[in-house]
Amino acid sequence: MRKATDDCLLCRVNAAGKTNSHILPRFISTGFLGAKGSPRKGYLLNGENELTAKPKTVQDSPKENYILCEECEAYLSLLETASAASLKFWQDKVAKGDLKIISVHPHLKLVQLDSPDPVIMRLLVYSMFWRVDISSLESFNDYKLDPDLAESLRVSLLEFKALTNADLQANVKAKQLTMHPYATMTAGAFKDETKNVLAAINPGNPASLHVDKFGFYIFKAEKDIAGNFMANFSNVKPGDNQIMVVSEQLWYDVMVKRPLEMAAEQAKRNLVKKS
Ligand SMILES: [Zn+2]
Hints:
The chain has one domain (about 20-275). The protein is built from eight helices and eleven strands. Helix content is about 35%, strand content about 15%. The protein starts with 20 loop residues before the first strand and ends with a helix. The strands form two sheets. The chain has a nine-stranded mixed beta sheet with strand order 3-2-8-9-10-7-11-6-5, sandwiched between helices. Strands 1-4 form a two-stranded antiparallel ribbon. Zinc ion (ZN) binds near residues 8 and 11.
């Protein structure tokens, strides 16, 4: 168990006194729990509890104590605040004509976001993968990124650390971020909004995270994305800020059914390992 006096895992300087740090940004990780006011309950998949009679239910997005200092927590909140509107309300912006949506395939559209700065969105995505990697919550315990990638994410985050929006913007203008290609996927509509999942199952290359209505993929390097079907729809260059919007059916197959199958497969493997 970590203690309040342990070093912050991001800056490694200050004491990690912060309690209840969300591992995944709250603004995108609680929709699947159902509407506010209703009994909020959702499923968390980790490849261990899927075979038991009762899958693990959660009432909030996972939180952990003593991983961050107050400053680093405030910095991650800045990234979240800057990115939240873009991820939550992209459909409203498309409807108003403020954002362009391009059809590339009957099951795939692309939306070019106009905010936040692409570097800030990239830092937010880096922070999610990094937070899941360092988390020792049971749900994320088995999820370990390639150590070089995890350290590069930490160093990149720290390099841009700021405590005010003005300082963050200044860092974005002055500094260069190490590029790890990433892709963001969502759907235009969902068969059942409460059937989405939070899941950290595949820490490979690309590593993936299922965060309610969003799927995130990160590749270690540009060469690793060459030949992948996501290559043209990902964020490879510093100025890229696009999201893939897949059909309701494709979302269900790839982001709901498939993770449930993968988690069940992993749970079986874990059972075999334990027996
Ligand atoms: Zn810190």
